[in-house]
Predict the 3D structure of the following.
Amino acid sequence: MIGAIVGDIAGSRFEWRNHRYKEFELLSKDGGCRPTDDSVMTLAVAAALLDADGNAAALSDCAVRRMQELGQMYPHAGYGGSFRRWLADSDPQPYGSWGNGAAMRVSPCGWAAKTLDEAILYAVTVTAVTHNHPEALKAAAAVSSAIWLARQGADRNEIRAHIASRYYVVDFTPDDIRGDYTFDVSCQGSVPQAFSALFAAEDFEDAVRNAVSIGGDSDTIAAITGSMAEPLFGVPDNIRADAESFLDETQMTILSAFEKAFGK
């Protein structure tokens, strides 16, 4: 889960002013880096999984409660208009979104799950409370599956083959798209790009740099990529420490409790 937070913070200052190079200070407080809605909602899903305690039937309600709680606690994190309205609704209902918010927040599902089927079930459950479009559910399942497989020791080729067989054929690299890729908040227009950044990476930091460098919705693509790169490569201690310095006590409490329950 910390991998998603690192990616989000690293990409946050480039979301509206893309940086199409891999050379930049990874986590810069002076440069305007911050945790955005991607980090807040990732932590909300983590808290929901802790609340549900393995009860998949309870997870949907837990996700709604925690997303609204943390969303209202951090009202200026950068939510989209439909999601802002959902956060304030006394009877929140899914609204058919295919936005990439479905994929950026599901990394805790891949860590909490004991089986691949459970990783998919958890991801679909926490996604469907808002993003119940088939493309959103597909993206959430793909990301959670990749995380679960990496935790079991699958390498990039094995993960790529699994994703191609069920979700996306990723037959391009960041270098192939860097010059022409444009801002796209759809799952179908940004999640395959996050996978390309992962598959081309040499290590965790390189994966995040790949993701930021292609442009587009930089914080979310980097959050998705970072979430999958964490179990594949591990997060270096210095990068983890730098990212944690951006989090407040509430956020660190959730992160610590989740990692204590489900491991790093």
Q: What stands out?
A: The chain has a mean pLDDT of 97. The CA atoms of residues 42 and 73 lie 14 Å apart. Residues 56-73 form the longest helix (18 residues). The two ends are 8 Å apart (CA to CA).
